[in-house]
Structures are given as structure tokens and as C-alpha cells.
Amino acid sequence: MARKKTWSYLSGERGRNRVRVFEKRPGQFFAEWKEDGKKKRALLRGVNHADEAKKKADEIAAEFGKLEDRQQAPTTMKKLMETYLEEVSVTKGLSKRQHDYRAARAWSAFFNFQPEASRRVGRDPSTLDRVDWDRFVSSRRAGIIPGWSRSVRDRQVGYDLAFMITALNWATGRKANGRPVLEINPWGSELRRSQRWGFPREKNPHRPGMTQELREGLIAHGPSWQFELALVLERETRRRNSAIRQLRWSDLDLVAKTVQWRGDSDKSGNENMTPLTQAAVEALRHAPARGIGNTPVFPSATDSSQPTPRNTFQIWLRRSKDRWLDSVPEEERENLRDRLRGIGFHAEKRAGVRDPNFRALPPAIQEAWAGTRYETLRTVYDEVTADDIREAIRTQEKAVQEGS
After folding, report:
1. H-assigned helices in 200-345
2. What would the DSSP string read from start to end of 25-85?
3. 139: how many CB neighbours lie within 10 A of its CB?
4. Does residue 2 surpass a pLDDT of 70?
5. 347-384: buried (b, 16+ CB within 10 Å) or exposed (e) per residue?
6. 199 within domain boundaries
7. 209: buried, middle or exposed (CB in 10 Å: 19+, 13-18, 0-12)?
8. What tens digit of pLDDT does each residue of 322-335 get?
9. 117, 131, 164, 284: which has the fewest Cβ within 10 Å?
10. Do 226 and 170 fall into the same domain?
11. How many domains does the chain contain in total?
12. 3-state SS of the chain: helix, strand, coil percent to 5?
């Protein structure tokens, strides 16, 4: 006796997202597909009719198709960067996400600017070499990449290089069809170290600190009390703007004069408690708006439960500088503009850690107070000016005269 044929339905493409549904018993439907070369089967619960089973098969095949498309190996630089932005950059914070998007656009423009077709954005990522590295550094520095005509400093060039290295590292760990998208990072750390590929570095970088005159001028033209409070706290605590703007009133004890720094708001990720100076305590006590508990010290204008965004702090700074520049005679403007160049919130931290009284503290105390490694404070933040040398000479001459 011939066996009754089982009803079945196929959806999707063979070898890509093929799904088969069939009726095993009256009213009982199953879905069948292949995964990693093995056949998988699952009961379609709640499906009682063939029309419902066909609809379900089409839905499953569509989802498998999307997954397969996402897993296709990025075989060009353009595809690799696009996939990295879609899968990795979207999980980052706003400022890092924006930098990734900017860096990707700069790299695309750079690749398409190359005279050789084989070095453009449609190339295989594994073909990147030292020529690309050197060309990008020189082109980005000079501002000759189409659409990126402003010359930038070595630090910005380093950020853009770091984006590409990170994207390539990610590609070596991401698998498509069971294999890495990129077998070997052509800009891997071992290769760069062995061939001495260095990140571009300025020989004598000038990182200005905030002076009393500049601070008073910015505060006088500042757009809000929050702007003034942020400058004071950054100078007095020697902390970064990211840690200051995310402070909550629960982190502060104005009676004991202490502040608890949270790891989730600190660049280094460290948590510790430090004393507050009297100037910092007075500034906090005189803040026009005070909160309690978990309320931010700098609440967002759109959501008081969240801290003010970083972009808003930068808007305050630019507005203060513009107001100050507009207030001085035209013949003095260029001089003031030069003095304000490079002055941001971080200039307060620099000024704080360059203070002679702070420098005289033991290294461990400096590290705990500023939340920065002593080696970094010494090699990056510290700066000896002509005035420092002049003052040291005067002190030495005075000591010699008193001893004679």
C-alpha cells in the first residue's frame, strides 16, 4: 500500500536561507533548516493550518536571510568600515560614536584620493601596508584630503589611525561562515613594532594651562553659573571634565569636605575618595540650584535626572570665548584669540597639576588626587616655562646672597 505523501512547503534560497515546513500529523507542523551543515527541526507551536505554516516559513526564511547578509565577510575597506560602524560604533557613547563616523568618512575620502585604483576604498583590507600609513599621516597633517582641507595636529592623526587599527583588530575576531573576516591584521601591533611604525607625535607640544586672568575673563562672559562652577571644580579637584560634569550630590559630603569619584564616570575607571578644598566647598554651597541624593550637580536642561551632555559644556565654552572677543576693541581681538587658543576645560586640570604646591607633593598623593598616573603627570602635564626658570634663578640667587 502506497504511503500517503506528507504536505510540505519550501521558502528561501538553497544554500542561503532555505526553510522547509511540513505536516507530520494532522494539525501538527514542523520547520526544518540547516545550521552549520547540520539539519535542525522545531515544532511550530500555535500553527494549525497549512496557510499559517507557509506564512511562518516565509518569516523564518526572511530572518535567516537578514542574518546571512550580516554575516557576509566584508571584502572591501568600504564594507569593513560600514559593518564596524553598524555593529560596534553604535554601542559606544555619543562622543566616541561621532568620532568613529568622522574617522570613517576621512578614511573613505583618503582612499578615494589615491592615484592608484588598487589603493581605493574598494580594495581588500588585507592589502593595507606602510605606504597607506605614511600617506595618510602626511595627507591628514597637511589637510590635502578632499573634504578635509583643515590641517590637524599629530594627536588627531593618531586618533584616526587608532580607529582603523581597532576596526582591523575587530575584523580578525569577527567570524563569517565560521572563518575570520580578516585572517591577519595588516597593521598588527607586532608588525608595527618590528618595523618601527610610530604614531606621529609633536616634538614640542604646547598644552596651555588656565591662568587667573583667562579664568576670570571666561567666567565674566560665561553663559551660566554651571559654567563657572565647572571651571572652579576642575581647577580645585584636578579632575577631568567628564568626571566633573557627571558628579551627583550623593557623591559629595560638604560637611566632611570629601568627594567620591565613581569609576563609571572616570577615564581611568578607578574609584576613590579625595578631600575637597575650601574653595570647592564654597563654590558648591553657593550654587543657585542645589539637589539631594542621586540628582546631578549639573542637571540636563531636558532631563533633570541626567547630567548635562558634553556638547553643552563645549557650547558654553565657545559662547564665553565669543562674548569676550566681541567685547574687546578690534585691534586687541587677535591677541586675545591667540591667548584663548587651546584653552578648554582641561586647561584647568593642567593649571592645577602644574601648581608648585601640587608638584611638591609625594607622587602617590598626586596620583590619588588628580586621578592620573604620576608618569603621565610628569611627562604629559608638566611643563617648565621661561617664567618658571626665571623664578628658580631668582630663588637660587637669593639663597646664595643670604648664605654669604
Report:
1. 212-220, 225-237, 241-245, 278-285, 310-327, 330-340
2. ETTEEEEEEEETTEEEEEE-TT--SHHHHHHHHHHHHHHHHHHHHHHS---SHHHHHHHHH
3. 19
4. no
5. bbbbbbbbeeebeeeeeeebbbbbbbeeeebeeebeee
6. no
7. buried
8. 999 999 999 999 99
9. 117
10. no
11. 3
12. 55, 10, 35
Whole-model pTM: value is 0.60
Within this chain, do residues 325 and 221 fall inside the same structural domain, yes or no?
yes
Domain that holds residue 384: 212-391
| Distance in angstroms (rounded) separating the CA atoms of residues 354 and 209 | 8
The answer to whether residue 387 scores a pLDDT higher than 90 is no
Task: State mean pLDDT over 367-376.
Answer: 89
Kindly report each contact of residues 241-244 with a partner whose C-beta sits within 8 Å and lies 24 or more positions away, as own/partner.
241/310, 241/313, 241/344, 241/345, 241/346, 242/266, 242/267, 242/310, 243/267, 243/371, 244/298, 244/345
For residue 124, the cross-strand partners are none
Give yes or no: residues 236 and 365 share one domain: yes
Q: What is the pLDDT of residue 70?
A: 56
Amino acid type, 402: E
Count other Cβ atoms within 10 Å, centred on residue 69: 10
Q: Verify that 94 and 220 share a domain, yes or no.
A: no
